[in-house]
Amino acid sequence: MLPLSWEESEQCGLHPACILLASGLLVIFIASCATPSFAQEAAVRFAAEPSPPFVKGDDGQPAAGALVEVMQKVCVSAKLSCTFEIIPFRRSLPLAIEGIEVDGILPGARTPEREQSFLISDPIIKTAYSFFVRAQSTWRFHSPADLNGMTIVAYGPSVTSNAVQEAALHTSATIQIEPNMPRALEKLAGGRYGANAAVLINRDIGLPLSREQNISGLKLAGDLKSVEYGFALSRKSSHAAQMLRLNSALHKL
Fold first, then answer.
1. What is the pTM assigned to this prediction?
2. Spatial separation of the C-alpha atoms in residues 56 and 141, rounded to whole Å
3. Which of 78, 179, 213, 229 is the most buried (most CB within 10 A)?
4. Which of 72, 31, 29, 12 is nearest to 48 (CA)?
């Protein structure tokens, strides 16, 4: 497995600081600044999908992580009050689409399906959807034809699972949706999906996750596609008009 390194951000008073977090294709820039209160503003409510190291936290609790830190600074710069709560997408997406209880989602990927219901920000994170296989496997992904005869497991329902279902459309691959990312990697390592199997997951989530969960015996076997993450605001949210304001603040960091 490839090594992964992270640089921790530090507070520097009112002086701007640029922090680079790099792993694979991941690049995040954070500007450090003071955090005043904007009590007069109605809070923009973001539902955050647990996806360490980008988003961390327990269900129903305030979210943390690198992407949340960036968004907190974006909201301060835009003079908006924002909240970030851990709510898995399977519950938060229906609410966010209608702008009920939730105004936006984090992270948000730009896809035609997502853009029907959401305004997607400019990218904050650049990474990739990658295939993980057992260490003894000789399989590698180069093109959709390589999916023939494979069992591909993807976290979902999600943009990730949608991507592999589209790629496998004209192949004999079996697509299996798994709602728990650590469990999917554990089952892959244990051979539970069979000899010809791979898990598709964001590489910058899968690498640290496998280390944190002590899941060994896996390796990378190629990228399905590169992907960019930002945040998304529901087109039906009362805060939809704030997207230009938030994007402008993002570019100033």
1. 0.73
2. 30
3. 229
4. 72
